[in-house]
Design brief:
heterotrimer; A alpha+beta (about 350); B alpha/beta (about 270); C mainly alpha (about 325); A: alpha+beta; four-stranded antiparallel sheet; B: alpha/beta; six-stranded mixed sheet; globular
């Protein structure tokens, strides 16, 4: 496959994003479950370089906060004590790909720094967003893997064998495509046992998401298989005595790779969004595990919505991923040259509104 | 002497793709075709598009099952064999397709393409296969350094030589060439047809040479059969067909063949 | 005609299949509405048994399905355990609310997308087109959950719009004009969320199909005949671009009931979405079945509608479909 520069740029962008999330332990100053009951619902802190006496400091610092007199949720800065930020500090232990470490990008010694504010239990939102990304992204990636695997399998079987098998499989696919996917998602998840451990809940979410979206990739793969299996080089291989399995493996499947890759780029962000939606509604990953979805769930409380705007920030975390993945998909498609109407209708919906 | 290939009353119907037509209608591609080829000779099958030539090629190469009739190869009815036996017989009958860009997977290297038949038939070790592939490259007149190149990097003529090399990999007795030269430039056509003639004499091959070009047929074939709408309308030795055609199809095909310029015309062109 | 009949049959098959799937699904999975009740020591087991018998939960599966099917054929959609009332009227009110939202949003979206998309295609590759494309790309990247929540926060911080519900408390006491204003205010945010979410894909499709039509050889021939650009665009290109757009329109109609679930839940709009979510969580079987059936009918009707429109608009389909 010839790679275009646009494609590589976006790929690098995405890889960087994923590395940041994967190394959440390093980039996050604190453990996401660490509570600080003295500082609930802290707004994001200001980082200063210039102090109250107009002196410039090279090392950024912040002022610890305390509750304002007579208020229960208004904070003010204690300008008497400046707490400097240190970089590459040692703090709470974590595991990066199984290797234990205590190195964090930044931190502070005497007070906690809340760059993005805190939640009801005083947990650092930045840390929770970073760690939550691990869960949400993983769910999206695994879900996409399941869907593409199912879709490729069914699409190849339907396209290659044809006949009644093809008819039945495509009818079932049509049924799945016709169902509103959000409904299907909820129904599938909600009808399965609700009170399960976080790991089980996560796996359930992945399986459910994976099983909802196989129909579209299956149809696309089938299309490719139908056109490829009549090509002369497949006929030639059959003339040498190749088995069906050989043909599928060596000639037909490689042709589906570009379709599958493009679908992957489109499905991953959609599935991350699916996990977010499920968790937001209480059907996904439960506390204390954080995912972008259940971080947003607090917004369903009216007082949070009114007074604590920074609790919305986890929602924005997914935007760069959408940007990266959709641009990647676009770059892939332009390379394949498949910008026809029929295919865009098939591959481009990404909101529950325009998706059938 | 027993013919190498004998086709008897071959009929091939295709079911209509359009599901709305009644099930009784079918497309008849072959309407009782009979021919035979003697070993180490070339039979040219001439006809216009749609006459059923390619369908015949596919049936003989066991890539399409005939509706009825028999195909005798060295006395065995290949059409009646089961899949396994067919697989064992396949090395003997090989097909060279018209468009090498389509019949060679463009992403594969020349080496992979030539050794593919050997891999599928599970013959020899990897080293032995590579050796044989290089020898085949020599035989078809391709430089060995092309072995590592991808198919889509080769020219049309080189690709077709590669396709022929691949077809020879399993040591076939019968080579079916389905319009194998039609997609090539004229000069390249001449080179490849000479190559084919050389290979025939050095390897003792038998050819079924399918073409719409009578001039080409005249150049390579011992016998010619003319096909029209799924039937053989005339067949016989090359000389006879060329000079004493009897069927009107043969006559019209011959009339349509471009002839080289007469001496006085070329003189006029040079002086103009 | 036979073509349309086949499409209608196809639609019926879909409906049947989906209802079967939903029924099987809800019936086969563990848990039922009465599990909660069982945990409550105050309710005697005998009462629960009686209730189960009343709702026929103890009969075998095929019997229950057939029973439900025949009931639906008579227009009876069953009984809601949670609301203790028949399902049909419940669904109607909620569906009406949903439609209010989605029809408005869809009209708005199409009204904005059509001119933008056509204009963008006419100025393909030039500055105007690039601006529109960047704007849609930017919008595309913001998923509907993020958009809806964002708008909600906007409402709360500015106080310009109410943050939920269909109408304010004390609605009935208002004058008709005030009532209208109140409704519109409540509708603004959810409609905005839905329309904004739909806009980018819509604009892209319209732009792509009009641009493709403008590339066609027959347009170039028309240009060489000296036909003015405006006439070209509206008289010729649009007609060629119509097919995929009509299909798209049909799809849009199809999602009128099912596409707004998330927005309704986030914005506390009393539509079909929140009802269904609630019912799924509470295992309120007949509400779920009825709700899914409702949405599916719309979806299928939408597709059928698109088929009919295409049949009427495109002579090629008519010819292909007629008996030979």
């Amino acid at each position: 496959m010839r790679i275009s520069r646009n494609f590589t740029n976006w790929l690098v962008f995405l890889v960087v994003l994923h590395v940041i999330i994967a190394a959440a332990g390093f980039f996050a100053p604190y453990d996401p479950v660490e509570q600080d009951r003295d500082h609930p619902y802290l707004p994001p802190m200001h980082i200063h370089m210039m102090d109250a006496q107009a002196h410039f400091h090279f090392r950024p610092f912040f002022y610890p906060v305390r509750l304002r007199e007579g208020s229960f949720d208004q904070y003010e800065e204690d300008t008497a004590h400046a707490v400097p930020l240190h970089f590459f500090t040692h703090a709470a232990p974590y595991r990066l790909l199984g290797i234990p470490s205590r190195l964090h990008l930044f931190g502070a010694a005497d007070a906690r720094v809340y760059l993005l504010g805190s939640d009801a239990y005083g947990r650092d939102q930045l840390s929770r967003i970073l760690y939550g990304g691990q869960i949400s992204l993983l769910a999206g990636l695994l879900g996409a893997a399941v869907t593409l695997f199912l879709g490729a399998l069914i699409g190849m079987a339907a396209g290659y064998y044809g006949g009644w098998r093809d008819d039945i499989l495509m009818r079932i696919a049509e049924l799945f495509l016709a169902l509103p996917w959000l409904y299907l998602l909820f129904a599938l998840r909600a009808f399965l046992p609700l009170a399960v451990s976080p790991i089980q809940a996560f796996l359930l979410v992945v399986i459910v998401i994976g099983m909802v979206g196989w129909a579209r990739p299956a149809r696309l793969v089938r299309g490719v298989v139908l056109s490829v299996k009549e090509r002369d080089f497949v006929r030639a291989a059959r003339g040498f005595g190749a088995s069906d399995f050989y043909l599928l493996r060596r000639h037909i499947f490689p042709e589906t790779a570009s379709v599958l890759l493009t679908q992957a780029a489109i499905l991953v962000p959609q599935f991350v969004l699916a996990e977010m939606t499920l968790s937001f509604l209480g059907l996904g990953v439960p506390e204390p595990m954080s995912s972008w979805g259940n971080l947003l769930a607090t917004l369903q409380q009216y007082n949070v919505l009114v007074s604590y705007w920074w609790m919305y920030l986890p929602a924005l975390a997914i935007v760069p991923f959408f940007l990266g993945y959709l641009s990647l998909a676009s770059a892939l498609r332009h390379r394949i040259g498949a910008y026809k109407i029929g295919e865009t209708l098939e591959t481009e919906d990404n909101s529950s509104w325009s998706r059938t | 002497m027993q013919p190498l290939l004998k086709v008897e009353n071959l009929v091939k119907h295709y079911a209509p793709r359009n599901s709305r037509s009644s099930s009784r209608e079918h497309l008849t591609a072959l309407d009782g075709v009979s021919l035979s080829i003697a070993p180490q000779t070339t039979l040219a099958l001439v006809g216009e598009s749609g006459s059923g030539k390619s369908t015949l090629a596919l049936c003989i190469a066991c890539l399409e099952p005939p509706t009825s009739g028999s195909i005798w190869f060295e006395g065995i009815d290949v059409a009646a064999l089961n899949k396994n036996s067919q697989r064992q017989l396949r090395p003997q009958i090989q097909l060279v397709f018209q468009d090498p860009a389509a019949s060679l997977n463009p992403r594969w290297t020349a080496l992979d393409l030539i050794t593919e038949p050997l891999v599928i038939q599970r013959r020899f070790s990897k080293a032995e296969r590579t050796l044989r592939a290089l020898k085949l490259l020599d035989r078809v007149g391709l430089p060995r350094k092309l072995a590592a190149r991808r198919a889509d990097e080769l020219s049309g003529g080189q690709k077709q030589r590669l396709a022929i090399a691949r077809a020879l990999a399993l040591g076939p007795k019968l080579l079916v060439l389905d319009e194998a030269l039609s997609a090539l430039d004229c000069s390249v056509q001449a080179q490849i047809s000479n190559l084919l003639l050389d290979l025939q004499s050095s390897l003792g091959l038998t050819y079924l040479f399918i073409t719409h070009d009578f001039a080409m047929a005249a150049h390579v074939a011992d016998q010619i059969a003319v096909m029209h709408r799924g039937r053989i309308v005339e067949s016989g030795p090359t000389e006879t067909i060329l000079h004493k055609p009897s069927h009107r199809t043969t006559r019209s095909l011959l009339a349509a063949t471009p002839r080289p310029l007469e001496p006085q015309h070329s003189h006029a062109l040079v002086n103009a | 005609m036979r073509y349309l009949l086949r499409r209608a049959l196809h639609a019926a098959f879909l409906l049947f299949g989906v209802s079967l799937l939903t029924f099987l699904f809800s019936a086969l999975t563990p848990g039922s509405y009465f599990d909660e009740m069982r945990l409550n020591p105050q309710i005697a087991p005998a009462t629960i048994l009686a209730l189960r018998a009343q709702y026929q939960l103890d009969r075998p599966l095929p019997v229950r399905y057939l029973h439900w099917l025949t009931a639906v054929a008579h227009g009876e959609l069953g009984f809601s355990f949670a609301y203790n009332s028949p399902v049909a009227p419940l669904l109607w009110t909620r569906a009406r609310n949903t439609l209010l939202l989605t029809v408005t949003a869809m009209l708005l979206a199409w009204l904005v997308a059509l001119p933008l998309g056509i204009w963008s295609a006419a100025k393909f590759g030039r500055a105007a087109d690039r601006i529109v494309s960047s704007a849609t790309a930017a919008l595309l990247v913001v998923p509907d959950l993020v958009l809806a929540l964002g708008l909600l926060i906007l409402a709360v911080r500015t106080g310009w719009f109410p943050t939920g519900g269909l109408v304010s408390v004390g609605f009935d006491a208002l004058s008709p004009l005030q009532k209208f204003r109140d409704l519109v205010l409540h509708m603004t945010l959810p409609v905005a969320a839905l329309a904004l979410a739909a806009l980018p894909t819509l604009i892209r499709h319209i732009r792509a199909s009009v641009a493709e039509a403008l590339e066609a050889p027959f347009i170039r021939a028309a240009v060489s005949h000296g036909i003015p650009h405006r006439k070209l665009l509206f008289g010729y290109a649009l007609r060629a671009a119509a097919n995929p757009l009509i299909a798209l329109f049909g799809f849009s109609v199809g999602t009128l009931l099912s596409g707004s679930l998330l927005v309704e839940v986030v914005m506390s709009w009393p539509g079909l979405g929140p009802l269904l979510l609630e019912a799924i969580l509470a295992r309120d079987l007949y509400v779920v079945l009825g709700g899914v059936l409702f949405s599916m009918i719309f979806l299928v009707a939408g597709n059928l509608f698109a088929d009919v429109l295409l049949f009427w608009a495109d002579p090629r389909i008519r010819i292909e479909a007629s008996p030979k």
